[in-house]
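Open question from group meeting: does this chain pack into something compact, or does most of it stay loose? Before anyone orders reagents, we agreed to write out a predicted structure and look at it together. Recording both the input and the output here so the notebook holds the full record.
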Amino acid sequence: MQSQDINPKNPENEPIIENKELSIFEALIPIIALVIMLFYNVRYVFGDDALSGSNQFILLLGAAVAAIVGFYNRVSYKQMMEEVAENIKSTTGAILILLMVGALAGTWLISGIIPTMIYYGLQILNPTIFLAACVVICAIISIATGSSWTTTATVGIALIGIGDTLGISLGMTAGAVISGAYFGDKMSPLSDTTNLAPAMAGGDLFSHIKYMTLTTVPTIIVTLIVFIIIGLNIDTVGAPNIQDKLTAIENAFTITPWLFLVPAFVVFLIVKKTSPLIALLLGTLLGGIAAIIAQPQIVASIAGAEALTFNSAYKGVMTAITVDSAVVTTSTELNDLFTAGGMKGMLGTIWLILCAMVFGGIMDAIGALSTISKALLNLFNTVFGLFASTVFTCLALNATASDQYLAIVVPGKMYAGAYRKKGLAPENLSRTLEDSGTVTSVLIPWNTCGAYQSGVLGVSVMDYFAYAIFNWLSPFTTLLFAALNLKIKQLVKK
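Structure tokens returned:
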């Protein structure tokens, strides 16, 4: 078994605070109030826009409810604020990584790295293996962009159209698109949920991604096999036409396999256990250099200049690193894909993390997390029981709070202590949060993800549900690993 050393100086490894013993009812009051407020806020008022700020404020209102419970039980305001400060301090690394992820996405766009991945990915389309190819293409693009939503709203829509002309069921194509998009989203270091899960569990980004491969790779392999079998047993008409999109990419970017040297170097650094911040920083800088060499016209355009000079090169790269940047092509479907928000684009997720840390910090300070943790350990006294409880909670929050981010944040804070007390490394929790929280959100029609994907692709959730194989199979895979005690990483004290 793998092991992870514990540094007692790290805030995330501190034991949960225990004050006057709360009843389980008192401990659950803030969570029940939070879920009710979030459900109303997302379902009936803001919908997809809930993450623009209203959900963050709801988390603060949930923290206020927790504080009232704390005052009733004679927990001081100072003690609550001290624990909030420790919680926020523990996310410093995650926040810096998120900022660097935004910066890297910007330079990898204007350098042509992401467009090159998409260009070669589109060329693997074949009518016989069209559905499996949809999974692979969307996985590649989602890993490159870190966004399942962007993938489905751009290439996904195009693939739906191609599948329709081939006479393939829209539900099948949508299920293949969503399966690939969420695999890539889940495994990409550029994804906000992939950064959010280890931040909530107290783990490390690249350790989290590496640990996720144990359940995620078998799940996507099964998904591909099923789609290949389906593809071999359905009749298609004609051949997919993607030449217009390939031409649009060629006209906008200089496409060359040499650009793959930059992501290959970053992967090399990760394998060599280089600090995530250093790896992402070097990837960002190399992406900027590649942009100046391979795409000088784009860098000058981003800077608002007619020619590339030292000043325009500096301004163009810095703009891509820090704020919004976009490259316009002749394909309207690809234009939305070739946009990046830079470091600015990550501020919404950082805002969510900070508000979640306020809620979690006060819940910890008043002893609510300790009470819930003890109840869970008594109720689920086995490792499998704890994993199953986590999966159920994520699914329940996706259905009630109607948002995948909250299905990661709330269980992450609830169960972190229980996993530590069981001697389990934080990667177990972060992986389970993604296996059951991130990917299942798209299977619920009233969840923001389900509503968004259904609206964008023009296919109802019920039509693509059975074919979103990767999404509904993921929770079963993580439970199977827990039941068989396969690769369950332990905490080992020095």
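Observations to bring back to the group:
The radius of gyration is 23 Å.
Residues 94-341 form one domain.
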